[in-house]
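Input record, target 12 of the design panel.
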């Protein structure tokens, strides 16, 4: 279950407590910041083996990178607090940074060792440094065991495909429906840990190891994702199966000759003639895409500590993870957007095709530039092989200095390795050679074979439907490889204690003034390399280093205690100075900046039953290495080119601002499957983001109702100069709506075709300091435990969030928009006004429990329904809103003797389908016509597990 929202703690050798969100040691659990904790029991009730799934259920979080996102995934798992971006949430493990911030991956956290997860809302940079803008998530592990603990679990998705609306759409288009009933997506998780005390309890060593396997799920196995859904008409009154114009039949757009600018295709009957392309030829690329990535993870490590004397306890840890995952998407193609040069006498063309392509030059050695889209066979899906290896070492010494003071000096080193290999992808250099074909004694032969530049070249026949053979495809493929190495080193020292031992105490309080002082040095380095094949697509090598020296202090002053209308009044303040030095060795680029962060907090309990808490934090997020020095690369984005097609939606005057010539207007090829290109990369001139966060709340623990806790906390977070890039959809809408030269200037069009996709046509989306992000809302929690006599006890728990605003100002002074209650296009994932999770648990005296969870997600409307010009977009009647969603989950546990606990459960008990959304509406982290992580995409899932203690 989700426990009462009491703050989490880190263990210390004495009775004092270190609460997540402060470095002050306290005698109680009172926190000035809103904290929600998730216990290991809640994780078991969910049957979760991926920790990001646990946190994504909390209403404070919006789903981020996860196992249900395939295309474009880097294989990591992240969390997004307050929908401000995963890079604005600081992730800690036992109070220390988990990994380099740019390389955060929650797969590294051994879920079976989690004792609890503490979520602190609001800035905490004065305490922890950069990145704690939206808040802090601290994973507290069971790192001090005495005995053997083994945990096993297996799970499976069991779903009935009965979405009649989508199945009718598939049938109408002639595509195969998903099977009526499926059982797939299996997960197996095995973990073991052993700990041993020694030296009379002064020392302990705990070791652990784990293995997790996840089976892939194809989009073909769920009706909602079996084809790419598109609007049925301009008003979006219905849905139809769309597809890609990169087809096995072949699509051609000559850039010259008698058919310049026309979109043609090979006749589907196999004859070598060209006919006008229509959507009837579109290729269904969805079925072979992964809806759940395959994954195999190994974890292992050890924790050790030994008290030499009260003044010196040495401690250390080693943690390791090896994760291997594949993402899979449709087979590769010669993609429209790349211009190929075709000889007019290519012997694989018919005379009719030569005439259509070259006119009077047909049959000669002249050439014609042509856009070609030709899909290879279905047995050759593109696969992204992602291999992560993460290492984390720490060592330190801590102890009691006497007079109520303690110290801690430690060193942390973490290394993140990512090796990525992209398989079964067409090499455009080879494709060009395979199209440059002449006849040698009646045999089609690559010119590169004749001149010896590529003796292995195999001619390809793209001039007939379904004509590329496996041999031809094997020649076209070239695997691309990239590798990154990200290292974080941290040296820190701090001392904290109670000045009350020296008599520094308020005359109206019993507890003394407490302080914490410390310093920290962090250095993060990144090296990214790409091979020649990867560089063909625009990826470049990159490196960088960030070095920061910091000093900080925190003070807590109890002002009043045990007085009328002042059971307790405490003030807290913190200050941190940070000096950053950034550099890139390969270019010599350097930058530096110094920043202050600070906080002020107050806690006032007029009576013992009620406590008010207030906080203000000035937080920062320094740019990470990728944002500063990231390599420039071209990637896909969901967007529509307003200047494409025979009848562009934008005027010629607007299109000229985007780089369209008079000759190109009306002849530009549409982005295939509403997928245009964008250029991503870093900017060495970036400065830190600055954030002001406010919280105000009330905690009620009425004595007349024992075991009841109620909290209400208001939060307001504003991030200024936030580091981002202009969303391509926003650039398009603002260019069209306002003819804004800044947004229109972000278009880079293919100089020959004018296209906005491929390696030469894209929207610039590199990083820089932009405008502001603002979010506000109210968190409500309730927890009540009721004794029911001989039947045991009943616990009721609820965590809910009311969203008040989710505003973005893309650029200073150029207007803003609010995504509260909206989704899609610029607003991205759903931003419901209300979300909650409620759990009811009956714990029986016999060692059994039954727990029911109710998850609620409020309705959201399509962002284009807003009258805000920033949110202008294509309307959709059928997707104008996503109705409210409610999920019921059921779980139970049973203790068998003292050492064995069994568990089983069903998530999404009633097998509720996710919403079916037109693919063009989806944005980041959308997949399979829906939003994985927000909604359950696999349907009903079952799990069974057991924990054994010896």
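The sequence produced for target 12 reads:
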């Amino acid at each position: 279950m989700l426990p009462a929202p009491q703050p989490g703690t880190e263990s210390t050798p004495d009775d004092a407590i270190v609460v997540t969100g402060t470095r002050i040691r306290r005698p109680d659990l009172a926190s000035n910041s809103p904290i929600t904790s998730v216990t290991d029991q809640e994780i078991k009730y969910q049957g979760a083996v991926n920790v990001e799934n646990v946190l994504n259920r909390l209403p404070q979080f919006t789903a981020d990178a996860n196992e249900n996102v395939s295309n474009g995934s880097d294989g990591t798992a992240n969390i997004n607090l307050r929908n401000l971006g995963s890079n604005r949430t600081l992730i800690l493990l036992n109070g220390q940074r988990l990994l380099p911030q740019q390389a955060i991956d929650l797969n590294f956290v051994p879920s079976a060792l989690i004792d609890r997860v503490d979520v602190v809302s609001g800035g905490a940079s004065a305490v922890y440094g950069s990145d704690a803008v939206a808040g802090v998530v601290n994973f507290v592990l069971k790192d001090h065991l005495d005995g053997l603990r083994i945990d096993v679990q297996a799970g499976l998705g069991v779903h009935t495909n009965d979405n009649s609306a989508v199945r009718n759409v598939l049938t109408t288009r002639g595509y195969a429906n998903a099977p009526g009933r499926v059982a797939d997506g299996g997960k197996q998780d095995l973990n073991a840990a052993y700990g041993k005390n020694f030296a009379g309890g002064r020392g302990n060593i705990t070791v652990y190891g784990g293995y997790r396997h996840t089976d892939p799920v194809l989009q073909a196995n769920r009706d909602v994702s079996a084809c790419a859904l598109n609007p049925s008409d301009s008003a979006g009154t219905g849905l139809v199966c769309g597809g890609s114009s990169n087809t096995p039949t072949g699509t051609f757009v000559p850039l010259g000759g008698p058919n310049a600018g026309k979109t043609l295709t090979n006749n589907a009957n196999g004859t070598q003639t060209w006919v006008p392309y229509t959507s009837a030829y579109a290729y269904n690329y969805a079925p072979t895409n992964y809806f759940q990535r395959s994954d195999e993870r190994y974890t292992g490590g050890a924790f050790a500590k030994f008290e030499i004397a009260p003044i010196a306890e040495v401690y250390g840890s080693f943690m390791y993870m090896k994760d291997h995952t594949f993402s899979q998407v449709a087979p590769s193609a010669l993609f429209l957007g790349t211009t190929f040069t075709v000889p007019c006498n290519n012997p694989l063309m018919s005379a009719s095709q030569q005439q259509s392509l070259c006119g009077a030059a047909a049959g000669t050695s002249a050439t014609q530039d042509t856009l070609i889209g030709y899909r290879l066979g279905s047995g050759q899906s593109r696969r992204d092989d992602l291999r992560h290896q993460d290492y984390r070492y720490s060592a330190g010494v801590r102890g009691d200095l006497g007079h109520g003071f303690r110290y801690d000096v430690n060193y942390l080193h973490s290394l993140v390795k990512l090796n990525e290999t992209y398989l079964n992808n067409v090499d455009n250099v080879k494709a060009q050679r395979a199209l440059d074909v002449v006849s040698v004694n009646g045999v089609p032969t690559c010119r590169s074979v004749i001149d010896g530049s590529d003796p292995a070249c195999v001619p390809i026949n793209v001039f007939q439907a379904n004509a590329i053979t496996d041999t031809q495809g094997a020649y076209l493929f070239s695997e691309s490889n990239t590798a990154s190495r990200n290292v974080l080193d941290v040296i820190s020292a701090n001392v904290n204690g109670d000045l009350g031992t020296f008599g520094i105490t308020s005359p109206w309080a019993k507890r003394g003034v407490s302080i914490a002082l410390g310093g920290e040095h962090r250095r993060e380095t990144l090296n990214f390399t790409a091979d020649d094949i990867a560089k063909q697509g625009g990826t470049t090598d990159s490196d960088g280093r960030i070095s920061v020296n910091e000093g900080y202090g925190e003070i807590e002053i109890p002002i009043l205690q045990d007085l009328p209308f002042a059971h307790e009044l405490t003030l807290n303040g913190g200050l941190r100075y940070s000096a950053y030095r950034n550099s890139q060795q390969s270019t010599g680029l350097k930058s530096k900046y110094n920043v202050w962060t600070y906080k002020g907090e107050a806690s006032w309990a007029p009576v013992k039953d009620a406590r008010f808490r207030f906080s203000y934090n000035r937080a920062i997020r320094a740019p990470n290495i990728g944002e500063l020095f990231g390599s420039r690369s071209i990637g896909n984005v969901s967007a529509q080119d307003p200047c494409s097609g025979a009848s562009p939606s934008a005027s010629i005057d607007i299109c000229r601002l985007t780089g369209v010539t008079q000759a190109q207007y009306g002849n530009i090829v549409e982005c295939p499957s509403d997928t245009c290109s964008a250029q991503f990369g870093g900017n060495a001139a970036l400065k830190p983001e600055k954030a002001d966060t406010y919280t105000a709340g009330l905690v009620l623990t009425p004595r007349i109702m024992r075991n009841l806790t109620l909290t209400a906390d208001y939060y307001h977070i504003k991030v200024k100069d936030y580091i981002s890039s202009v969303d391509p959809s926003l650039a398009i809408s603002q260019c069209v709506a306002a003819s804004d030269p800044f947004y229109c200037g972000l278009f880079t069009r293919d100089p020959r075709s004018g296209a906005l996709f491929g390696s030469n046509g894209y929207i610039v989306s590199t990083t820089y300091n932009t405008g502001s992000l603002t979010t506000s809302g109210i968190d409500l929690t309730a927890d009540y435990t009721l004794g029911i006599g001989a039947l045991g006890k009943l616990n009721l728990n609820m965590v809910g969030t009311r969203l008040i605003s989710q505003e973005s100002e893309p650029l200073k002074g150029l207007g803003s928009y609010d995504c509260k209650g909206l989704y899609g296009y610029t607003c991205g994932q759903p931003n419901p006004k209300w979300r909650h999770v409620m759990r009811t648990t009956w714990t029986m005296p016999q060692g059994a429990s039954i727990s029911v969870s109710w998850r609620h997600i409020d309705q959201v409307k399509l962002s284009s329904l807003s009258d805000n010009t920033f949110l202008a977009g294509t309307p959709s009647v059928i997707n104008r809103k996503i109705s409210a969603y409610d999920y019921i989950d059921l779980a139970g546990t049973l203790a068998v003797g003292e050492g064995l606990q069994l568990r089983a459960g069903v998530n999404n008990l009633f097998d509720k389908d996710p919403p079916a959304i037109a693919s063009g509406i989806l944005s980041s982290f959308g997949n399979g016509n829906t939003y994985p992580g927000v909604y359950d995409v696999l349907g009903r899932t079952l799990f069974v597990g057991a924990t054994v203690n010896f």
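The chain has two domains: 9-154+295-325+388-419+482-632+682-725+766-949, 634-680+726-765.
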